[in-house]
């Protein structure tokens, strides 16, 4: 039973990823090839970065459909009737699938941490530079905007952490209430401990229309390094340990972390949803096949599974905006549908 379940789950997952990747690539290929010099290699690079996201997102769906196909097949061949005649309860019949789904959940967690998070971060960086070349440094952030009073600062790339942050291709828009006052452009900026040292600076004065070049210029004594490194932290782009560190840094800087805490808890509860799918799809295993209700039971199982995903996404959205506590946003749908699945199974079969 476990082998049947795993094989069918992988078959469904492969089919879903293949179809959805093809459709996604059709929609994005124009943007990728629009950048001069991009070709087939860049298309395959996009596929390699996008496919792990599709696998992670649709693995629980595949577990649900694999469960229903497996149990419906066993029911159709009267094998479930034979197992019940041999004295097995409904929970004992489902035990191999639940144990196998635990292995799937463990695989999903490791896969998300080691492959999905880095590929999501890489793809996000690539999209921000409009599918152009990305600098090779690790831990890089691209196209970061920071506001300092009326002024705006844009850094095309940010590397490093803490006081070791390095900004490259910086543009500073010094504004007054009535509009732009002057424009500063620098090749590189480093934090000196109290301000930022810009090198290769070009200063353009809007009122006079004059341009002045300077080798160095000290600016931004009120701008902190964490404003660049902690801007737009994405839970999907970080591993669970890196996200925990980022949440701690944000809290020290007095920044809101409710949505990131919800994402942190969901990194655990998300893979755990695979364990829930055999329970929600179990209704397809029981009832007499010749009664003509096997298809209806399969539909009910799919409805329960998809209702869980709707509730999970809704709760995560509520946690992101701060309407739900983070732990409730991540675990409430799981516990609710676990109770629903157990209730259906006990009332109908036990």
Automatic annotation (TrEMBL):
TM region positions: 51-72, 93-111, 268-287, 294-311, 323-346
User: What keyword terms does UniProt attach to this protein?
Assistant: Cell membrane, Membrane, Transmembrane, Transmembrane helix
Q: What is its main location?
A: membrane
Out of the domains of life, which is the source?
A: Bacteria
* Annotated localization: Cell membrane
How does the UniProt record describe the way this protein sits in the membrane?
Answer: Multi-pass membrane protein
Q: Which InterPro entries match?
A: LptG, LptG/LptF_permease
Question: By what name is this protein known?
Answer: LPS export ABC transporter permease LptG
Species of provenance: Parasphingorhabdus flavimaris
Gene name, per UniProt, is: lptG
């Amino acid at each position: 039973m476990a082998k049947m379940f795993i094989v069918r789950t992988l078959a469904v997952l492969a089919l879903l990823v293949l179809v959805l990747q093809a459709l996604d690539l059709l929609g994005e290929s124009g943007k990728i090839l629009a950048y001069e010099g991009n070709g087939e290699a860049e298309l395959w690079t996009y596929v390699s970065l996008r496919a792990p996201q599709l696998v992670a997102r649709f693995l629980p769906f595949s577990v649900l459909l694999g469960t229903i196909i497996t149990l419906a097949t066993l029911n159709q061949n009267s094998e479930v009737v034979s197992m019940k005649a041999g004295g097995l309860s409904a929970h004992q019949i489902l035990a191999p699938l639940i144990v196998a789904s635990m292995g799937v959940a463990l695989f999903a967690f490791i896969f998300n941490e080691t492959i999905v998070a880095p590929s999501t971060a890489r793809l996000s960086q690539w999209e921000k530079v409009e599918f152009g070349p990305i600098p090779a440094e690790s831990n890089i952030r691209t196209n970061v905007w920071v506001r300092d009073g009326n002024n705006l600062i844009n850094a095309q790339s940010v590397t490093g952490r803490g006081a070791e942050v390095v900004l490259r291709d910086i543009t500073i828009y010094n504004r007054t209430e009535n509009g732009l006052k002057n424009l500063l452009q620098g090749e590189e900026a480093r934090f000196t401990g109290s301000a930022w040292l810009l090198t290769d600076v070009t200063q353009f004065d809007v009122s006079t229309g004059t341009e002045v070049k300077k080798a160095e210029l000290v600016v931004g004594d009120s701008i902190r390094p964490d404003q660049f490194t902690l801007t737009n932290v994405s839970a999907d782009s970080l591993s669970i340990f890196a996200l925990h560190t980022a949440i701690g840094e944000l809290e020290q800087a007095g920044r809101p972390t409710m949505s990131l805490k919800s994402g942190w808890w969901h990194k655990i509860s998300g893979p755990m949803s695979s364990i829930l799918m055999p329970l929600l799809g179990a209704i397809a295993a029981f009832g007499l096949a010749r009664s003509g209700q096997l298809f209806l039971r399969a539909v009910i199982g799919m409805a329960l599974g998809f209702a869980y995903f709707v509730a999970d996404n809704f709760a995560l959205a509520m946690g992101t905006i701060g309407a739900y506590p983070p732990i409730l946003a991540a675990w409430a749908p799981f516990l609710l549908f676990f109770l629903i699945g157990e209730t259906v199974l006990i009332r109908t079969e036990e």
